[in-house]
Amino acid sequence: SQHYKASQVKNLADYLIANQVDVLVYENNDITLMNKNGEKRNRSRHFKRSLNLMTLHDFIEQVSDKTKLYHPRFTAVAINPAYSSQTCPACGFVDNRSRNGDKFCCVACGHVPQPTANCQVIPPKDGTQASQSDYAAAANLLNRYMCVDALLGINNHTPKQNVKVKLLQLYEIT
Q: Is-above-0.85 flag for pTM?
């Protein structure tokens, strides 16, 4: 699970405001902790404060609040990330062989994802460049936000195996 510092909230909010970004689509990778009886439990405030870090959910919430002060149309949307980095954003084919680490080349159509004006990837925190698989995932998350999830009935609670079945059904139709 990634954690974020308060200074990163300001940096991202400033970027979103300066570039008039209307929608931030992100992976819903919320990790739920379980106790030894298998029951869900939340991290305590003391735990988070002791690290002076925040979870992705807290980070996005704070970025949204700051960005909306200057750009009221802004919204952040969590999308089910299942198979987003194994799905070709060009043809929709889902196959884990298309992704090889940070590289992505669709085994069905040969598409290699690149950055576009309407789909950007926030660079990794370590300062490295976003990878081809990052761009594939970003394009797929944006596509899912725009229409695919509603069309297929995918939401943040859809089990991973059901997501793949639905994505492959869509590929067969198109």
A: no
